[in-house]
Structure formats: C-alpha cells, structure tokens
Amino acid sequence: MKVCVGTVVHHPEDARIMHRQIRALLDAGHQVTYVAPFTHCNVTPQPEIRAIDVPRAVGLHRAKALRAARSALKRGCADADLLLVHDIELLLALPRRRPVTVWDVHEDTVAALEAKPYLPDFARSTLPPLLRNLEARAERRLHLILAEESYRSRFAADHPVVPNHTYVAETAPPPPGESRVVYVGHISAARGAAEMVELARLLRPHGIRLDLIGPADADVRPMLRDAQRTGLLDWFGYVPNRHALRMAQGALAGLSLLHDVPNYRESTPTKVIEYMAQGVPVITTPLPKAVEAMKGCGAVVPFGDVDAAYRAVLELRDDPARRAKASADGHAEARAAYHWPDRAPEFVSLLENWAAARGRVTVPGGHRAVAV
C-alpha cells in the first residue's frame, strides 16, 4: 500500500505522526510519501520516506501554506492508495481527485481556541460554528480516526480511536536522581510556563535545576530566555521526541502543570504517560485523565499552586524509597497499558481495510455513500 501523509501545522518529527503512525506503516512494509514543513523546521527527512516540503502554517499566517499544501497533496496522491491528513486546515486543501482519504482528529479544535493567544476576539466568536460545520462535512465525505475517546460526542457516527500511546522499553530505565526536574513538550502559558519558571526560582537554592525540553509560544519566549540567561533553568528548545525522552531519564520528577482549560480536561495525558514510561515520577495538576493514568506514581498539586509543586519536589527528593517505587510502578503501568506497538497493528489494519474498500463512506442517517 502507498500512503500519502500530510501536515502543515505539526512539526515533521511529531511523535504521533512520524514516530508512531508512519513508523508503523513502514514497519508493516508500506510506502509513505510525507508532505510536511521540513525546511521551516530544519528537519532532514528520513531516507525511508518520500518527502515533499511545504511551508508551515503558523499563527494567523496560513494562506501561503494552504496554497502550497494543495499542490503538494496533489503530487503526493498521484499514485497513492490512501491519503492521511492531520490538520483541520488541510480539509480546505484536499485535491479534487484523490484516493481514500482519512482525517486524524488530533484535538478538539474549538476547545483549543482558548489556548491560542494570537487570535483576535472576533475570531473566537466566529470560528466555532465554522469549524463545527467543517467537521460535519468531513465526517460525511472522509474516514475519521480520533485521538481521544472523548471526541466521539462531537460526531454523528462512531469512529475508531487511535490513542496517543508511547514506546515503553521492556527493561527498566535508569532510576530517578535528586538534582533535576524536567518538562517535555510544547511550552505555553496554559501549559504552566510561568509556574515552571517560578518553581525553578524556588528550587535553585536547593541545588535542583529545571530542564525545559520543547518549543515555546511567542508570548512566553522572552520569559524563558530571561530565566535561562540568569541561570534559573535550561531551555533546550525543540528536540525530537525520542531524544527528548532519553534526556528526561534519571530526573527527580517530570512536570505537567497544565491549566484547567477545556482542551486538556478529557485529553489523554501523553506527557504523564511518557514520564512514566521513562521511570520518572510525575507531578501533575488534577486533570481527571492525568490523575487516573498516573496511578499514584508521583504527586497531584492544585492548579496554579507553585508552592505545592515545590513541596512535592522536595518530598520526592527526601524520600528515596517513594521515588524508586513511583519510578518502578510508573514504568510497569506504562508498559502494560500504554505501549504503542501493542496498538500499531490495529492502526495499520484499519488503513489497509479502508484502502482495499476504495473508500465508500456511509452517510449517518442516510442510504447513500459519498465517494472519497
């Protein structure tokens, strides 16, 4: 099977797209064409894939990227059996003549608007109905896969869920140390950027440093640069997921200080699961899915309560037995419940079956099919 995969929003090394889904397809013997912003993100495509470079859609500046994407997807689909797109924006750039088409629904797009500070006020009121209409149209014309069980309620029909699981080594990772806490992932105000900088300030006299591993929104970058300049923390910027997780190994704790915003409440706590997989004790805010996933392998602190996070770090540092148990239990739970290779064959089989069926999508509540 030949698959064209497309994104103009996500980083080409996005863990879900590149290191889970594309890797599963390649391992199953399929050919992949990948349309992604390689040059913008300074990424060299892996030799196993056919790469088509496009501009990246950033902030309010997306028109150029979408125009380029339409042409790139047309090229990528020329001999493909299936097209897999990862951005709602690409629903506006699909070629008229295309193979079986699948939209991977990564997030609740409307709920995510709250965490986009660059949007003007008028857009926050006008975009939600437009986005919901676009989603409904996509459901009638495309196959959908969902990243979250909670997304089911947004759609009229039932769609398969491909969860955001991770790779979990069979052998135990290095034990947690005493002098470093980490955060891995995108950094934004809603993900606790200000709280983490203040936490670094409190931990500095105790000889505990904070490592931030990931890109940051424009509005928090000056704060992070100032904190790094004064020695409060180390901010490494974007690091490919597989390398970032290795950097997290041996940390005293992994931070997930997300705010209580709609897009995070029912989302799979990928960050928490990744810390557990690396044997790193977790400190998280009380988002329901995060608390459920961590199974006590760390500490839960109130939203915005830096003092509570500070105390949780010191308690872990001063209790080696608790730290070791959190590490071992977290790794075991992640291996048993969240190991991506256990789910990868289901994902590949799903795409194979759709491609073989030539993509007739039944319209919910109707008696016709829409060609894709």
UniProtKB/TrEMBL annotation:
Keywords: Glycosyltransferase, Transferase. It holds the Pfam family Glyco_trans_1_4. GO terms for molecular function: glycosyltransferase activity. This is Glycosyltransferase.
